[in-house]
């Protein structure tokens, strides 16, 4: 059929017929008989009849996603015994699911099946899957399954991957116990409230994110679990999950829950030694059992854990020795919690940690053991932004020989060196000599007059000084120290004026943010730079230079932000020139406005009457200048003539006297 484009593919799939989005109501019968992949997505096919695939005996991959499939007739696949992958996603299979089940049972080699988005219930799923023992990958996502038990997946003994996301599952009763080869299970976006006695030892990846889980309790067993990735993010967990004692877990995702540790209460009370007695009465015998009210000892082996994400929770402290059980940890995310202190202790060796995020907490100080081994020797990214820090441990960066990125923004921190006050140096953060440091954010730190060359010995390429209203006061020698290496600079809301900074030395600069200042004109020193990105939003600009599009700056720019400035609607020649620059992108171009009399108009498309009036005003101004200049010129000419006539006799006498020739008047 001419509407279907055949193509050759290497290795597994030898030939493909691409018939997607062709408004087909049936499977074309005149394609090449040896095709192995047939793509029929986004058509209007309703029925897969017995004769639909008889001509394609070599078919291995068939996709009918996003059609209107209501019926697959029994016998539809009798000529396609070699079919390995079948996608029937986003159809209407719920209408005749029992007949479709009969048709599917004729596929002994089927390994991958996608039934997502077909409004199937658990009972329908049980019927459809009853004779598909060869399946290795199954998607039942986006259906209306609510409860799973052992009857649904009984015969899927070869299943390796199962996707059940975006259903309405609230209960699972031994549904996966018979799936001995299952390795990847996705139950995200459902309504599970708890997982108790988790015992799928063969599972490698479990995703139960975006549920309403409050408890996760693994089976108390010394068996080795193959679990490598556990995603419990975006739930309602109240406690740190009880994990398998022995596992291969390397990624634990707990973001966006309601977890905390409870051995220490916010008022300082400790529950560590508080005990509770249970009285057990069985007939005539009575037993008294005494247990600790709260025990935060983690009995799981987390020696292989590399990624731990506990962000967006309610932790206000970490138990002593908590991180000591994770010697292989490389990424630790504790941002958006309630932490008040963070202790870099010898008991919590973080020798391999490369990424530490403590941003958006309530930190007032970091503690580091005196005399302990070097803290964070492998650290590369350190985020402390949006806390209440006023100082960091002295020499915290002394042994961080690999650090590249530090974010200290929105703390009340100063950079060393600081002038001595009453014989004592004020607390400060010393980054001098950090040769590996390339990205530094100091936004909103209240910096002022950075004397003493605080960046000496660094090779910063990205520097953010936003929201420091006095950082550009005083001598700017500290900024010139970075001229050779700096590539991206943010001076948003720094009280910058058009003449505050000379940018001509920053020849490596490619990104510059000058938004939120009081610029009335584009700094002249920018004209020779070859920036790729420039942000001029929220200033006091009435126009840009008329030749900005032809300067080195205009020729190199790829991204330009211009909105929220009081441009003059009658002097937008520069704007028209910029719009003709092909590679230049102005993401906020529809937000660029200009002032016309007392109106604010969109500069994107000015009304014709406004354009006509602007042209008339421009012409009138030229005429006005001419009218003003003409009388002046005439006055000067008359004055010159009068003076000349008055002085003419005297001038002639002077000339004759010098030449020695007399002549009558």
TrEMBL record:
| A GO CC term assigned to this protein in UniProt | extracellular space
Question: Membrane-spanning regions, if any?
Answer: 622-647
Keywords tagged on the record: Leucine-rich repeat, Membrane, Repeat, Transmembrane, Transmembrane helix
Name this polypeptide is given: Negative regulator of reactive oxygen species
| SMART domains xrefs | LRR_TYP
Q: Which InterPro entries match?
A: Leu-rich_rpt, Leu-rich_rpt_typical-subtyp, LRR_dom_sf, SLRP
- In its UniProt entry, the species of origin is given as Pavo cristatus (Indian peafowl)
- Key word Secreted present: no
- Superkingdom classification of source: Eukaryota
| Pfam annotation, one family | LRR_8
């Amino acid at each position: 059929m001419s509407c279907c484009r055949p193509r050759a593919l290497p290795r597994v799939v030898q030939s493909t017929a691409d018939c997607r989005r062709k408004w087909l109501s049936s499977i074309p019968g005149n394609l090449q008989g040896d095709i192995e992949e047939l793509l029929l997505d986004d058509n209007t096919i309703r029925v897969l009849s017995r004769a639909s695939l008889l001509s394609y005996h070599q078919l291995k991959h068939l996709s009918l996603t996003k059609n209107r499939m209501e019926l697959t007739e029994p016998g539809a696949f009798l000529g396609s015994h070699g079919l390995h992958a079948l996608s029937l996603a986003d159809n209407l299979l719920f209408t005749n699911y029992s007949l479709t089940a009969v048709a599917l049972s004729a596929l002994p080699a089927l390994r991958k099946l996608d039934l997502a988005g077909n409004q199937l219930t658990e009972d329908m799923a049980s019927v459809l899957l009853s004779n598909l023992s060869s399946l290795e990958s199954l998607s039942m996502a986006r259906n209306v399954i609510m409860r799973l038990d052992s009857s649904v997946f009984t015969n899927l003994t070869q299943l390796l991957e199962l996707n059940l996301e975006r259903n309405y599952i609230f209960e699972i009763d031994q549904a996966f116990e018979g799936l001995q080869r299952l390795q990847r299970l996705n139950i995200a976006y459902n309504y599970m409230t708890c997982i108790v006695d988790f015992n799928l030892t063969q599972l490698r990846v479990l995703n139960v994110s975006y549920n309403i889980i409050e408890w996760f309790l693994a089976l108390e067993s010394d068996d080795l679990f193959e679990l490598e990735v556990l995603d419990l993010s975006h739930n309602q967990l109240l406690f740190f999950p009880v994990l398998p004692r022995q596992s291969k877990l390397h990624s634990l995702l707990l973001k966006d829950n309601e977890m905390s540790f409870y051995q220490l209460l916010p008022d300082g009370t400790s529950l560590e030694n508080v005990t509770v007695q249970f009285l057990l009465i069985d007939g005539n015998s009575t037993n008294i059992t005494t247990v600790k009210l709260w025990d935060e000892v983690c009995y799981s082996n987390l020696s292989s854990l590399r990624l731990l994400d506990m962000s967006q929770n309610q932790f206000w402290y970490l138990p002593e020795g908590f991180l000591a059980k994770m010697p292989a940890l490389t990424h630790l995310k504790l941002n958006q919690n309630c932490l008040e202190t963070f202790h870099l202790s010898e008991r919590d060796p973080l020798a391999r940690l490369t990424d530490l995020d403590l941003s958006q907490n309530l930190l007032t100080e970091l503690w580091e053991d005196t005399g302990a081994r070097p803290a964070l020797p492998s650290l590369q990214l350190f985020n402390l932004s949006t806390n209440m820090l006023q100082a960091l441990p002295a020499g915290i960066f002394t042994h961080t020989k690999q650090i590249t990125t530090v974010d200290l923004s929105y703390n009340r921190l100063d950079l060393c060196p600081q002038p001595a006050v009453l014989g004592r140096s004020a607390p400060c953060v010393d980054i001098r000599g950090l040769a590996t440091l390339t990205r530094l954010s100091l936004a909103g730190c209240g910096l002022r007059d950075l004397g003493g060359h605080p960046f000496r010995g660094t090779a910063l390429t990205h520097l953010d000084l936003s929201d420091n209203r006095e950082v550009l006061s005083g001598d700017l020698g500290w900024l010139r120290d970075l001229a050779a290496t700096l590539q991206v600079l943010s001076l948003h809301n720094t009280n910058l004026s058009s003449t505050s900074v000379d940018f001509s030395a920053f020849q490596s600069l490619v990104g510059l943010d000058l938004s939120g200042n009081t610029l009335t004109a584009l700094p002249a020193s920018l004209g020779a730079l070859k920036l790729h990105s420039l942000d001029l939003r929220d200033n006091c600009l009435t126009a840009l230079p008329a030749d900005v599009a032809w300067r080195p700056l205009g020729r190199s720019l790829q991204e330009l932000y211009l909105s929220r400035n009081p441009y003059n609607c009658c002097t937008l020649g520069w704007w028209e020139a910029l719009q003709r620059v092909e590679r230049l992108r102005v993401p906020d171009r529809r937000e660029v406005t200009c002032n016309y009399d007392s109106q604010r108009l969109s500069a994107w498309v000015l009304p014709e009457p406004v354009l006509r009036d602007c042209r008339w005003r421009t012409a009138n101004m030229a005429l006005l200048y001419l009218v003003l200049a003409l009388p002046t010129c005439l006055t000067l000419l008359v004055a010159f003539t009068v003076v000349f006539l008055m002085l003419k006799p005297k001038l002639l006498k002077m000339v004759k006297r010098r030449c020695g020739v007399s002549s009558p008047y």
